[in-house]
Design goal:
mainly alpha, 15 helices, bacterial flagellum protein export, membrane, cell membrane, transport, T3SS_substrate_exporter_C
Length: 377
Amino acid sequence: MAEEDSSQEKSEEATPRRIEKAREEGDVPRSRELSTFAVLMAGTVGLWIFGGNITESMMNLMKDNFSVQRAAVFDTNQMAIHLASSAEEAVLGLAPLMALLLFAAIAGPLGLGGWNFASKALAPKLNRISPISGFKRMFSMRSVIELIKSILKICLVGGLAVLIMDWMQYEILTLPMESLEQSIKHSMVIISLSAIALSSATLIIAIIDVPYQIYEHAKKLKMSMQEIKDEFKETEGKPEVKRKIRQLQMEMANSRMMGDVPDADVIITNPTHYSVALKYDPKVASAPIMLAKGADQIALKIREIGNEYDIPILEAPPLARAIFYNTEIGDEIPEGLYVAIAQVLAYIFQLDQYMKGRGPKPKDLGDMPIPDDLQHD
């Protein structure tokens, strides 16, 4: 039992296949703190860059809305035109900032985990609405860590806000003493600087959170040795399945090979262990081509097909072994066997003529020249 339990310990790093499957299910490392920092910083930078335009739009809105003629107030058409003009002014003033915030909201999450669209993540899951699962999540270690981060953010941002207010106290108190236009512009500067300082505080939390999220994600995807073995079997195929596939492939190949035997010009045998079927067509190749070869039962089958189709069968053990071991199906015979095969083809031709009564009976072939490097016992 101890060995069985230890084998289930998830101590191994996730395989590429496991990581790929996790991405397909939408499980990638994400940092909310990084996304929050990106949006806040984009907003503050946007205020700093576009603050002048926003201030000018606000002033124009105030001028237009506080200087409406009394007659226009009671004219429905004039008020509709005035409302459309005010809305256009507000949209034009805020559009650049809103566009920057939208870009940050999209780009922020991509900073960790990259772009990943997973349709499986959209599928409904019962554990998301299960009270028991929700209760477990509420009191999980992850929830405790999130609570600690929230407290840390409140303390950090709140403390920094107090320091900023104390630092800018004089400037804030002198705003009522300035003109309206100057006060609005000065307020935008104070707000922009304060927002940048407060947003920078979230960077500290993001720097801590990003490595933690990467670590947590890698830890969650860790695998046991048994899981790795199961994945390997699933990917590579079980040994018995692979053997069956190889067997079927061999059977299919043999079936195709046997279908070519009737086209052979001669079958050379061992006589009991090997058989090779050759065809010679000068229009196709400069040397005879092996159509089929086999040992034992397959060799016997080749001879049976040869007898069925009246193909000449010649017993030449050394030549049969040399062709069997040095030639693949569909290839030409080696150059070193040209002379021996030429003698075989000549013998077959003379034998055919003799059987038709057109010539004398050919002499036995006897020993045929086979190079030492092509011989096989």
